[in-house]
Amino acid sequence: MSNVKKKKGPIQIRELAKELGISAKTIIEILQNKGYDVKSAFNKVNREMEQAVRRELNMVKEESKKEFEKKKKIYEKIDTKSKQQKPRRLKKKPQKEKREEKQKERRIKQKTKPKARRREKKQVVEEPVEKVIRIPGPVTVKELATIMGVEPADIIKELLSVGFIATINQTLPMDMIELIAESFGYELKVAEGEEIEVKEEDVVKEGEEELDYVRPPIVTVMGHVDHGKTTLIDYIRKSNIAEKEEGKITQRVGAYQVEVDGKKITFIDTPGHEAFTAMRARGAQVTDIVILVVDAREGVKEQTIEALNHAKAAGVKIIVAMNKMDLPDADPEKVKRQLSEHGLIPDDWGGDTIFVPISAKTGMGVDDLLDAILIVAEEIDRRTTTKGPAKGVVLESMKEKGKGNLATVIVQKGILKVGDVLVAGYTYGKVKALYNDRQDRIKEAYPGDPALVQNFEELPRPGDKFEAVKDLRHAREITEERKAQLKEQLARGQRQTLAQRIMKKIQEGKIKELPLVIKADNHGVLEAIEDAISKIKATRVKPVVIHSGVGNITESDVMLAEASEGVVIGFAVKVDRKAKEYAESAKVPIKTYGVIYHLIEDVENMLRGLIEPEYREEYLGKAEVKAVFKVKGGKVAGSFVLEGVIPRNADKVKLIRNGQVVYEGKIESLKHFQDDVSEVKAGMECGIKLEKFNDIKVGDIIEAYKLVEVKPEL
Questions:
Q1: Which of 48, 169, 208, 224 lies 20 to 30 A from 576 at CA?
Q2: Cα(81)–Cα(78) distance, integer angstroms
């Protein structure tokens, strides 16, 4: 980004690497072999160290030249011999190959028996259904739980035990599904005729994989809410992303690309609120490097640790950006200290994690951060192929007026082009248009590039893998087969667990529920909302999502909520006119939001509204019974107020005898001498008549309380 300046003293290793046109890692290795104590590309080298590097490089060049000359002579000799023998070999080789192929075919025909095949098919049918799972491809935690007849929480616990962080709506990879199925006593089988990827005969014919392309590094920006992630990318892209986001907090995953010194870097900006765990985890799955943004004033927060755990679980490189260094109370040493406790040792402390002080607002240190990304990227094998069908991962999906179903994807192999037919999970589509991160139309996207794909039949799920196939007919067949197999497995799981659920409800007693119909503007946000709602800690009353989808709130959504006596919730969507009218007549509540915090808070408040009110006793005062008088209709306690006040309208009074409460109720009448009074204060005498209680004795204590309503626990 910045031009090389004239050296007036020691320079950093990264600057020397740029000048010499080699990697910083190579210079570090040379200096370490020479006995110099260097560990980071940001370490400085003096004149002596620089000369040592240059001498070593010159020696290597000389040795390489000599080696090349030797090899050249050897290859020339071999080439001469091979040319002399070439015609004779070319005539004989095809005949030998033909004979060998015929012999192989005969052996295969002799060994293959039709009866054996029939037996194999019979064995598959006879396998016990309840212990075999057949699925066409990746499924979510919730779907896998339904198929196996277990609680999603049990699967999440099992995943955590092997270090895999997942949420209820997160799509699991096949290897993880196999591991979980095995732990619950099930055998996983990929549905017959369907591989984990698209069927080989349906895929665009792929040649031998040639690693002919070095893709840009994919960098995910993570960290705590409002620590400056979007502002950092905003500065790098010189755009105004943060200002367009409601509350200036990123509400969805964005993928962007920049160019630094002629080299591309792809950034994924993930939301910071804890509700978006699944989206953040998804970003880490396709990432090479994580930029962990930490506010240098506030230090490490809960979501900083959560983001760090995702990065560690994904096994990616981490660079720490200590943000807001332009402010006077910034404390970078505090950040280093806190993160070192979580295993990130700064390079200047002898560790291998680069910490870069920056200000996303002013741009201070951003060039150094970009250099650090390119330095770390050198250590990662990013070679891939541009040959064969385009493959990649769906980051998010959404509906947009005028464009229909859209999906943000990252290409991992091949070249994605307009006109390609894609299969992504349980949907497909012919690419009508491709857009880059600035909403410009593009004709193709290379490995490592983010792209917005238009024209999927249905919205693909975030985390789904996509692949180009031969044509629409094959794509349709694949997705229909996958859907049918998944539906069959889900129905089987539901039938198996129906009796268990009924028994559980009987044992638990009647549990109050809040039925919810949720609509959002895109799939990623919808998934995050459902995850956040599922994490609400509630034992006495539970939120139940009876339907969720992408798009505006319709009349059918309101009807569904009415039938279940529930609530319709919308996030960044509009309410159709018919839906609004029907909701008003049926008195169905519709609530819309633009910030997820407010949505979750309101759901919690609605849940509290279903619980019986709870009250806390607030002590007001006490009186001692000095005499008991018989009156018409009962007894009056002649009392002396010891402390506080005894009000006539006290919410509750207790009569205590020998330390035991023998009565709880209310005051029927309160007199001071012959007058009715509203309250009697300490040091005064009074006559107290209790409601429906006459067993009063001298020496009893009467305490008065006010009942204060408290926020009920869910």
A1: 169
A2: 5
- Amino acid in position 288: D
φ/ψ region of 249 (left if φ > 0, alpha if ψ in -120 to 50, else beta) reads beta
We report the CATH number of the domain holding residue 263 as 3.40.50.300
**Is 90 exceeded by the pLDDT of residue 582?**
no
**Cα 666 to Cα 705: distance, rounded to the nearest angstrom:** 10
CATH code for the domain in which residue 561 is found = 3.40.50.10050
Q: H helices within 610-695, ranges in order? A: none
The alpha-carbon radius of gyration of the chain (Å, integer) is: 36
How far is it, in rounded angstroms, from Cα 591 to Cα 570?
Answer: 6
AA identity, residue 242: A
Reduced to 3 states, what is the DSSP secondary structure of residue 186? coil
Tens-digit pLDDT profile for residues 406-432: 999 999 999 999 999 999 988 999 999
The Cα–Cα gap between 545 and 556 comes to 15
Q: Is 572 helix (H, G, I), strand (E, B) or coil?
A: coil
Are 572 and 521 within 8 A, CB to CB?
yes
Are 280 and 402 in the same domain? Answer: no
Task: Say if strands 317-323 and 354-357 run parallel, antiparallel, or are unpaired.
Answer: parallel
Which H, E and C letters describe 155-182, residue by residue?
A: HHHHHHHCCCCCCCCCECCHHHHHHHHH
Interatomic CA distance for residues 704 and 693, integer angstroms = 16
The first and second tokens of residue 673, run together, are: 């001498």
Q: Decide if 157 is inside a domain.
A: no
Dist. CA 523–CA 519, nearest whole Å: 10
- pTM: predicted TM-score of the whole model, two decimal places: 0.57
Give which of 197, 578, 267, 205 is closest to 436, Cα–Cα.
267
What tokens does 421 get?
Answer: 């037919």
**Domain ends where: 439, 469, 499?**
469
Residues 369 and 425 placed together within one structural domain of the fold: no
Residue with tokens 């560790």: 351
DSSP character at residue 518:
E
Which residues span the domain enclosing 455? 391-469
Which backbone phi and psi does 542 adopt, to 5 degrees? Answer: -125, 140
Residue 118 pLDDT class (50, 70, 90 cuts): very low
Tens-place pLDDT, residues 178-226: 888 888 888 887 654 444 344 454 444 444 567 889 999 999 888 887 8
Yes or no: say if 671 and 678 are a contact pair by the CB < 8 Å rule.
no
Specify the number of domains making up the chain: 5
> For residues 611 and 303, which has the higher predicted lDDT (pLDDT)?
303
Please count the other Cβ atoms lying within 10 Å of the Cβ belonging to residue 581: 13
Distance CA 300, CA 293 (A): 10
pLDDT for the residue numbered 329: 92
